[in-house]
Design a protein that fits this description.
The protein is an alpha+beta fold. Strands 1, 2, 3, 4, 5, 6 and 7 form a seven-stranded mixed β-sheet that branches. The chain is globular and about 50 Å long.
């Protein structure tokens, strides 16, 4: 038997102003995307923005439905749109932000397991790391790749 340990490396920022300009633009697009969220049940508006390898930014927001499993997260909305419309371009970064009543949540919101697995798939397809930026009003976390949020990625098929 061997005991092992996983460590997660990330950078924490106090505000958007501390980010590099390209990441700041991505965060601002994710914040803007929260305004297109359809969340009449949870009142939890999530926006995501993806930067493609050519610099283009694609946005998405969560879309709820009275039949709860029929809704979709902001991250997957943005990734599936980018994959369907710009499938030949690798995704290089994604920013995610949540708000309630128009106010950004204090702590960063973390993607669900399904979104993490979809991120892993697109990272693999793109052949390069997909950076993840999780935004809260009080702090911002930046991860350099999907493995940081999803160690032991399912990629066996």
């Amino acid at each position: 038997m061997t005991n092992k340990e996983l460590k997660i490396a990330y950078t924490e920022y106090d505000s958007v102003d501390q980010l590099e300009q390209v990441d700041k633009e991505l965060v601002e697009a994710a914040i803007e995307a929260t305004k297109t969220s359809y969340a009449p049940y949870s009142k939890f508006n999530v926006g995501a923005a993806i930067r493609l390898e050519d610099g283009m930014i694609v946005k998405g927001s969560n879309q709820e439905n009275a039949a709860y499993p029929s809704g979709i997260c902001a991250e997957r909305t943005a990734m599936f749109y980018a994959g369907a419309n710009y499938g030949d371009k690798a995704m290089t970064a994604i920013a995610v932000v949540a708000s309630q009543n128009g106010i950004i949540c204090p702590s960063p919101v973390s993607p669900c397991g399904a979104c993490r697995q979809v991120m892993a798939e697109y990272q693999k397809k793109g052949g390069r790391p997909l950076a993840i930026i999780l935004v809260g009003a009080d702090k911002i976390l930046r991860f350099s790749n999907v493995e940081s949020l999803l160690p032991l990625i399912f990629d066996s098929i």
